[in-house]
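Hi C.,

You asked whether I'd gotten around to modeling the 306-residue construct. I have! Everything is below, sequence then structure, no commentary in between.
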Amino acid sequence: MVYIITNNFCNFSCCLIEWLNYYNIENIRINDYVIDFHKVNFKIETLNKKIKVDQNFYFVHKPCGGDYIQNKDLINQIKFEYYQGFFKTLDENRTLGQLDFTSGNSKINILEVINRFNIKFPESLITNSKNDLIRFHSLHNSIVTKPIHEIFDFRSNGKLYRPYTAIVTQEDINYAPKFFGLSLFQKNIFKYCDIKSFYIDGDFYSQAIFSQHNENTSVDFRLYETNNMNRTSPFKLPNNLEIKMRKVLVYLKIKMAVVDFILDTKNEIYFLEINIEGVFENISIDCNYNLDKIISNHIKKSYEKS
């Protein structure tokens, strides 16, 4: 059995299920598994001091629609952590996809690994000191700030709040207290376009997003307007960058993710971040990559090995 652990709004999972049905692979879709996953039967047993698990395969893709932080009942969060612990006991060949919150890879850790593999990324500062921030701003003139942790949406009084990358102005610095919450700052790279690259088990499928043509999306392309979408096109990462990033992802034991880069006006590519739960549906549709078929083939091969 293949369990597809996702959310109510994931159309991509519908396409994936069609391919699995085509391959005659029995599957069950579970939406918002924090609430519903307890209805599924699991078994782990020890035999001669070896752990034996069931023979299912699990595909995990945004299981709570990015909304699990808002659960009203604490017991849902407990279930969330419990079942992620179950996934960690499984043979890595029996799962595809994981959850940012429990991946064990923080943004700080990932930047350290990126640096170790000599991949270029914007000069960065992690600090809670206004004096450090002043010096960093003076050095680079234009800087941005972004969440130091994995992002989540937050609702308050019926309004949705979502964190974005933003320019840090001199006025922002003037109003900052002497010490503030630990924050991540980076040199603002003036870009030609954004690059989103879907990675699965050694292969990259990349998309260029020409976000500079719209003032709203020039700093963070996620601030798009639905009636004025950015132009996109397929993109091929340089071979040497793919080789380095593949080593990074293997080192981090990540089999599926979306990796964000930017291409600057001098034709240099900078790494931004790895999104384990990154959205790749648009990459598939806009660039005709048919990622639903590619992922289903990966699941088919892994499932048939068991």
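If it helps when you're writing up: The domain at 191-275 is CATH 3.30.470.20 (D-amino Acid Aminotransferase; Chain A, domain 1).

Thanks,
B.
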